[in-house]
Request: fold
Amino acid sequence: MNAATKRLFIKTYGCQMNVYDSERMKDVLAPLGYVTTETADDADLVLLNTCHIREKATEKVFSELGQLKRLKQKSGGKMLLGVTGCVAQAEGEEIMRRQPAVDLVLGPQAYHKLPEMIARVHRAANERLETDFDVEEKFDALPLDRQVDGPSAFLSVQEGCDKFCTFCVVPYTRGAEFSRNVDAIVAEARALVHKGVREINLLGQNVNAYHGDAPVLEGGDSWTLGKLIRHLAKIDGLDRIRFTTSHPRDMDDDLIEAFGDTEKLMPYLHLPIQAGSDAILKAMNRGHTAERYVEIIDRLREIRPDMAITSDFIVGFPGERDEDFEDTMKLVERIDYAAAYSFKYSRRPGTPAADMFSQVPEEVKDERLQRLQALLREQQTRFNQSQIGKTLPVLVTGKARNEGQMAGRTPYLQATHFECSEDLTGQIVNVTMDAATLNSVGGHLASKVEPVA
Reply:
């Protein structure tokens, strides 16, 4: 190993935005000689990229830091220890106070400053906290040349949230909505395709709220997500486009119609609703009704009949009555989801819902969650089984767990496994489905495929 090479270990919690951020941290640190390692035991720099959405997030971070402190002591203090992400943004000063072993704390909009912060630590400047919101500066500072791991990649186009749902901490930890300009996105997309990426997933906290500055030659006006997708679809070598995560309030007609007129846009949409009761949606400050949500889905399926819809649900929100929960169950039956994530409501300090009256008892939350998840599992299994006998284009992403099999994704984002050569990694092949489980589908190549050099 080169003497200048240093080992980097990043543990990533939570959402896809954090996965993207971790990848960009690796890019930012690469010029300093950092290469990734699979374990913290031999790392020169350990970063915990944290998420504040899940229950007891802060306690989990402090527990992890306690274990890493012992590793740092074992290294003679040579290991640098950092906390990044949303817990860092929300609890930065508390982290520094409670765990002196931490060398640096950076919020989600500051990780482009990692090299500077590391230099400060080495100079013993004692300036270890960086949590100011400065998202535009962050995007401007990120290197265009990214490390690529496989034929599918995330591309961040939007950050932050202005919705202020009463249960959510994202507006406080990620800041206001900000959209990158079109030229920067296109340049990054082209660079990814040049490295072999064939599928790009456009990423944002409210990705369909995107309103980025257009190229000057295109008039310089603000573009919506639908227009951006159509523009990216012109890139040769880019075969698939997805986006996540969307908000029902921002599903405009132009974006809906893009599913019908843009072949590269995959027939898959993750559109969280959280609850099927208008009373609860209002208490959550979601800004839409259940009826409006259903209208959006109906319109999408009218344009693209094979659309796969997934969603998020919270049960036991403060004030949720039996009839409110039954409204959620009826909506789930009405939509018939391909998959969904569902959770019990848990308080987030600093959010309006945390102080609401009529908190729902835990045993009631448990019972409701079990009923909802049973229905969602039934729908997900049925959707996967509906693919049996069909031949679908599958993007081969790498080796599967079983010997001799490769893994891939269907247009509906289903995990797929089948026998084929490793040489087909990164290609789109036709696979006839002959098996299905709750979480995946299996099949065999529909015809012999020759590897492409």
Observations:
- The domain at 391-445 is CATH 2.40.50 (OB fold (Dihydrolipoamide Acetyltransferase, E2P)).
- DSSP finds 13 helices and 21 strands in the chain.
- The mean pLDDT is 87.
- Residues 277 and 324 are 5 Å apart (CA to CA).
